[in-house]
Amino acid sequence: MAIYALTGFSLVSLLSFGYLSWDWMKPSLVADVATDPMEKPLPPTFTRPPHIIFILTDDQGYHDIGYHGSDIQTPTLDRLAAEGVKLENYYIQPICTPSRSQLITGRYQIHTGLQHSIIRPRQPNCLPLDQVTLPQKLQEAGYSTHMVGKWHLGFYKKECLPTRRGFDTFLGSLTGNVDYYTYDNCDGPGVCGYDLHEGEDVAWDQSGKYSTFLYAQRVSKILASHSPKEPIFIYVAFQAVHTPLQSPKEYIYRYRSMGNVARRKYAAMVTCMDEAVKNITWALKKYDYYDNSVIVFSTDNGGQTFSGGSNWPLRGRKGTYWEGGVRGIGFVHSPLIKRKRRTSWALVHITDWYPTLVSLARGNLSNVQGLDGYDVWPAISEGKESPRTEILHNIDPLYNHAKYGSLEDGFGIWNTAVQASIRVGEWKLLTGDPGYSDWIPPQTLTNFPGSWWNLERLTDGPRKSVWLFNITADPYERYDLSEQRPDVVRTLLMRLVHYNRTAIPVRYPAENPRAHPDFNGGAWGPWASEEDGEDWEGSREPLKSRNKKKKKCKICKLRSFFRKLNTRLMSNRI
């Protein structure tokens, strides 16, 4: 039998704060207002393709938005969501690269070879060049396409860059995380470089500008210079609220009463991002785009709880296949929506945006084979049933195999040591090691001296490698039904077998020393030529600059700290 243990707080204490009394079936604390077609006329049929603004935030936790009961102020996001359609059955991937690759290709990561981890700065790897991307399809439909923000889909060749994958313009970073002001990124001791690019050039002149403001300003400039009579697609991939935790002081001051320092800085970053979205929305209205626009808001994965994020009341965190890692914040705001001001429980996955947006743009999908996404616009706009009934969260054959998994535990058809997860209807199955599995209330609950993240933990008695949950009835994943419903377990394992047969080999090459920024003038950027294959290996060591002081790798120190922290957490499991 499962044993629940609270460290430093009782369950009664949590209830007294109202955190466990949150009604899952009424997730919005902002009242939904049903729109009666008899009271207001439905929006007119599209007379021309709509302008599309896709906003993706980085590491924003499920709890970290006002309408999910957060203590963080997000008035713009709350208003846009309240006036549009909130997606409360919306799924993303647990880490950066997989979510971005599935958004851009409309395919599960097992179908692009990116099913393991992320693309690292020194890997000769990128989004497969044979994939036709979302912006390329929109270009075919006559759209002007622009990207602002974080790419994180590989850059070892110029062919991998955003401007070669369908975007007319690009301002942003190529790697996974950079300093918000200096745009430096360290990928190991002494392996540091500048990472802010304008098109295919290094944007040295933009250093010192806070990225959230810089990106919002660039969106406004794009809108000001473009004609609203011509369709435009802008992909805004904010760096916020990924580490490092940096924000202008005036935003931190708003949260000075928060005892947890990480949470305080994180909250400031979320509110700053919210104001950036406000400025983007204002620009859409100022330059006459708004009335024919569709704004999509999505997070890329769950929040990182030891960096200030919160996924409460969901289980788990970023990097895990528990709901806290894969259930995202999502909403659509548009004057073109037929049934506004409501919450949708239609099942939606990040792969669905590809066919949905291409269809909205009146693009051609007939020549695109093998998409895993569905056109969910009728479900969003009209409240119709979602065409999606299942989601493959992932199958990762390279992730550390679970110690207690076996083919026998998988009825002889699936090795349960392999990390995998799938949802079919109301059922969700996990095998292998799904990742850190605690429930972590918002960090502002107390000022714990030390292990505030150990608040509520779970052990399952004998070591496990299979979990089954009825997500509709048990969205917090507290009641494992794998032993009670072996029939359902077997059915979902068969679905994993089906998907695994369609998987392509994992693309995860070794890091190459030639990628060192010292070979590229001190900046991260393409380092392989067109003739170099993905297995090309350089032999030179990075050059030492006599004129530069060796940079201190603050990010490297943080990574080392979090690795040690995670080891400590796992070794102390109850």
From TrEMBL:
Residues 50-361 form the Sulfatase N-terminal domain. InterPro entries: Alkaline_phosphatase_core_sf (IPR017850), ARSB (IPR047115), Sulfatase_CS (IPR024607), Sulfatase_N (IPR000917). The keyword Hydrolase applies. Its cofactor is Ca(2+). GO terms for molecular function: metal ion binding; sulfuric ester hydrolase activity. Pfam families: Sulfatase. The keyword Ion transport does not apply. CDD domains: 4-S (cd16029). Belongs to the sulfatase family. This is ARSI Arylsulfatase. The lineage of its organism: Eukaryota, Metazoa, Chordata, Craniata, Vertebrata.
